[in-house]
Request: fold
Amino acid sequence: MTAKLQFDHANCESCPIRHRAVCARCDADELETLDSIKYYRSFEAGQTIIWSGDQMNFVGSIVSGIASLTQTMEDGRTQMVGLLLPSDFVGRPGRDAAAYDVQATTDLVMCCFRKKPFEDMMNVTPHIAHRLLQMTLDELDAAREWMLVLGRKTAREKIASLLSIIARRDASVSQKGLSGPFVFDLPLTREAMADYLGLTLETVSRQISALKKDGVILLEGKRHVTVPDMDRLLEEAGDDSDGGFLV
Amino acid sequence: MTAKLQFDHANCESCPIRHRAVCARCDADELETLDSIKYYRSFEAGQTIIWSGDQMNFVGSIVSGIASLTQTMEDGRTQMVGLLLPSDFVGRPGRDAAAYDVQATTDLVMCCFRKKPFEDMMNVTPHIAHRLLQMTLDELDAAREWMLVLGRKTAREKIASLLSIIARRDASVSQKGLSGPFVFDLPLTREAMADYLGLTLETVSRQISALKKDGVILLEGKRHVTVPDMDRLLEEAGDDSDGGFLV
DNA sequence: TGGCTGCTTTGACCGAGATCAAGTGGGAAC
DNA sequence: GTTCCCACTTGATCTCGGTCAAAGCAGCCA
Reply:
């Protein structure tokens, strides 16, 4: 059973991701057109939204919650290749079949557009195509950043990198200041973290325990994290101290 | 000293990458405009084209040769995050500073555009923006494919994956058939392969020797490779047997 | 011709992280 | 409450790939 469709009749003006999503640059007319081909869908945590190879008849934006893109090898080894946050775009215009599994990591609401009308609209609306290019370039940067993590960082650095990314995102969403302690909940299970980081869940658990023991993070329960000193965490992540943290 | 500017007065009609580059969709008028802001530059193997953080006052396409994007940590660990082949695009419109080191892996010729005029042109030329979006989406796919390699494959599978990618590219460039043995030269040193694969150069050397001993590949000198049975190589790479090889 | 340099191979050993295996803890159903 | 379940933790052991070291090999310049 699907989660409650809490955004069912939302209009674009009050949309929480309006200013960051693929429609960010659209004017009133364009929004109206989008409105006519859009619909909301909700997914529960753990649900698979699309299987790799499936026909995709829609594209869309994450409104709330977190989705993941994963690749799986024949023998079951899996690697997460994308973590989709609110305002991120799902689907590839011009491609019929999904290239990756898309899963709801938390409860999730998507703003969907039927694919064909969206593609048609993209061709006549430079605002959308241009914004999508920007977003794709950003994702490419994030993917390349992640290649360094996967290829060259130690398990401890990988965990610290993931925590700092989640902390950064959380701060940018909740508009908290960047000084003082960071407090947030991990939106991923240990296994999902392992799939993201190219580790086993045991190693993830051990390294989180180690960071806790060393005072880099505080843990309350399994998921509630406090980072008393963000610079310390970034140092553990092996990032430059300047860090480009204020992006 | 720079390599010979063999393309100095080339025009777009005879350009070898015309049909695949960022200008692929441009009409005659648009090509003429591009012509007025373009110039060719050559680099020798090993030269650094741009340092991460540098101001970039041009963007451009690889005409011939191979370039690499690399990231380096403070302690010297490096990870290659992109391998740029003929027709690939260098630079990011809308960004001033380079995010990665760009190096010429082989002797290289680039078709450069001054950045500002190119950006202006992009804003009024949907053909260019649209093609760049396509190319960026392709690169994102390639990066995600590579995340699986980095995160989950064994050293032997990593080497086999890289060899199959190079073989594939070589076949698509030289229009050779896909049956029978594949023969090509490695365009990368062992160290560059290691940086690409998240390994050490010793491990790369060992695994290449092992693949040779097991008859998966034949080696003539250090660089000249023959793949007698491509399916066997793909199997060693851990890819699905269907493989999506005919892309 | 000889030696230098850079790329590559090979060997011996070590350690970070994987694997296999128990055990813990907290929330939900009964 | 008790039980079950599931996410997580912790321990013991193994192994793949890293590290350190030496040597091979081809091209190049003197």
